[in-house]
Input
Amino acid sequence: MTYQLHPDAEADLRGAAEFYRKRAGNNLALTFIAEFEYSVNLLLEHPTLGALWRNGRRRFVMRRFPYSLIYITVDQQIRILAVAHHSRRPGYWQDRD
Output
């Protein structure tokens, strides 16, 4: 199993890491990235771990940060559509494939 990060999800990830870097420094930004990588690795091992959510997409809640990975599985690939903050712009990612 592999994963693909939608370009807009990559922008979500970078934006969140930059937010944490500006607010609390590099260590928290790196911790956020490490938590993202941990979450992706869990999904690669267990693709149905995320709860079925909207329009056939799945939502995996990150443990230490208020973010979820919104994804779909296609063949042997996880496509991460968004790294979505829990309280900012709900559903902004719905048009992503």
Observations:
- DSSP finds two helices and five strands in the chain.
- Helices lie at 7-24, 26-45.
